[in-house]
Amino acid sequence: MSASMASTEPKVRRSFLSVPDLTHADLERLLTLAAEMKADRGLGRGAPTADALGGQHVALLFEKPSLRTRCTFEVAIHELGGHTVHLPAQFSEAVREPLEDVARNLERWIAALVIRTYRQETAVACSAAAPRLRVINALSDEHHPCQALADVLTLREHWGTFRGRTLAYVGDGNNVATSLAQAATMMGVTVHIATPAGYELPRGVTKALTGLTRDGAELRLFTNPREAVAGAHAVYTDVWTSMGQEREAVKRRGIFADYRVDRTLMAAASPGALFMHCLPAHRGEEVTAEVLESRASVVFDQAENRLHTQKALLAMLLGAP
User: Fold this and answer.
1) For site-directed labelling of 124, which of 205, 224, 240, 288 has its Cα 20 to 30 A away?
2) Marked catalytic residue, from 278, 302, 308, 310
């Protein structure tokens, strides 16, 4: 990407709380920018976007533990010429002062807030209370949009084109499944979601996807994982028990036992199908070690691409107009 492109490209000027906060054009542009940033990373401070944030401050407020999300945001902010501010998790609890007041203070000092929270409402409240503050949802109970950006970049790298492709997700219809379905169908990928009864995608999510799909992409729902995976070009799964659901772990292991991605299930997919997982993975539960460590697995490509797509997102939200 040229330096002139970095400075003149129109920027997204709003918060990023879920994938549909981006238009189709935004998402296309973000993937292109992320790929360019990835290619330019070896240039270090000589990269065209090395000062894209121009010394702006970005705060990180994490209620949940994090490896990939925290590290990639910290590195991204640094490599774009910004500075990080680390906020204690208790500031989101609204005990010392209302959450809205925290956000209204922050917008006087910093450019953006990256928040990883147990409740989507927390991110929404911060964005609503402080309109000058760009709020980025780094994971909530309802959405994991930054992961989905990395996922579709990874698919584009391996597939080249999205048209005519099918992605099968097997497991819990959770935040990862929601954001993945949104981003993939926006790029023209047909998505199959296989979940046990009672663990489907939220009804509101499936209804809203109708207005997001393009290029003939569809969302199809299944309870039988083999039917969902049949002929798919990629197979995706996530942990059966997310953070905050630990008390359900034993129950969920029983309910999801037939949804484990193993060699037999992968054999039902299209030849050369990719295996995807947002990590951390529990080998022997939602996926076997054999599949996770196989040549089909692109899980560490996904993890790497968190950095590049988040850099592109930050540049689009905060870069100079």
Assistant:
1) 240
2) 278
